[in-house]
Amino acid sequence: MADQTDHRAEPVLPTRWTTALWLVDVHGVQPREAASLLGMSTPAVTALLTRARHALREQVLADHGRTTEH
């Protein structure tokens, strides 16, 4: 049987973005605590999370042949 594995590239986000997403969105760490762990200010982590979520969403939509442009 032929290999049915999806060979699309995994979303590539900067390490700091991925770390922040895992801390806050997966592990439930508050942005203030994530900021301390990452050596950043809380507003910087909040901005980083916004950029990371947007980039991840764009990658998922692109993988499915869709865009966020109207």
UniProtKB/TrEMBL annotation:
SUPFAM superfamilies the record matches: Sigma3 and sigma4 domains of RNA polymerase sigma factors (SSF88659)
Domain of life: Bacteria
InterPro entries: RNA_pol_sigma_r3/r4-like, WH-like_DNA-bd_sf
The protein, known as: Sigma-70, region 4
Organism: Actinokineospora soli
